[in-house]
Write a structure and sequence with these properties.
The protein has 170 residues and is of the alpha+beta class. It contains three helices and five strands; from the N terminus they run αβααββββ.
């Protein structure tokens, strides 16, 4: 099974990292009272960010070009996508994902500028032999629960980190 992810770590490790980041934000923020109710405008802005970012991320997997991600993600996140694409190429594979849908399940905001977001994403994944149109495998309708850390910037929200939490069969 191919998974559309950036981290090669097991999902338990990713969940532990996500929990650690949440705890650090609470400690840095001073107290749990800094957890804010998200405004409808911020909820929509985060949804729009992900709906814009994910198709561009998929395009980057297919093209090997990452410039279009710069408005939506920080360099560390873009480097993570780039590394995954390069790792696949070293294995003689090109991943050409297609986003079917994204549903925002949960958004938690700390200190007005940090958000943790959980999504349910459905992807069609197509794996080709590098440099050819030879299909090595396909996985249609792969359902993934994905965790994001997002930061408010002057120009809006940006993805700091994206990790696959769970992949559902069927």
């Amino acid at each position: 099974m191919i998974r559309l992810e950036h981290s090669v770590a097991p999902s338990r490790r990713s969940a532990a990292l996500y929990a650690l980041l949440a705890c650090l934000l609470l400690l840095l923020g001073g107290c749990a009272g800094d957890v804010a109710e998200i405004s409808p405008e911020d909820r929509q802005a985060i949804r729009t960010l992900l709906e814009s970012y994910l198709p561009l991320m998929a395009e980057s997997y297919g093209s090997g070009r990452f410039e279009k991600l710069e408005d939506f993600a920080v360099e560390k996140e873009i480097a993570s996508v780039r590394k995954r694409v390069n790792d696949l190429a070293l294995g003689g594979r090109d991943l050409r994902p297609e986003l079917v849908s994204v549903e925002v399940e949960d958004i938690t905001v700390w200190n007005h500028s940090n958000a943790f977001v959980t999504t349910l994403e459905i992807w069609n994944l197509h794996i080709y032999a590098t440099g050819t149109e030879t299909v090595l495998s396909e996985e249609l309708g792969q359902r993934n629960r994905v965790k994001y850390q997002i930061k408010r910037r002057e120009e809006g929200w940006q993805v700091l980190y994206r990790t696959l939490d769970t992949t559902f069969d069927g």
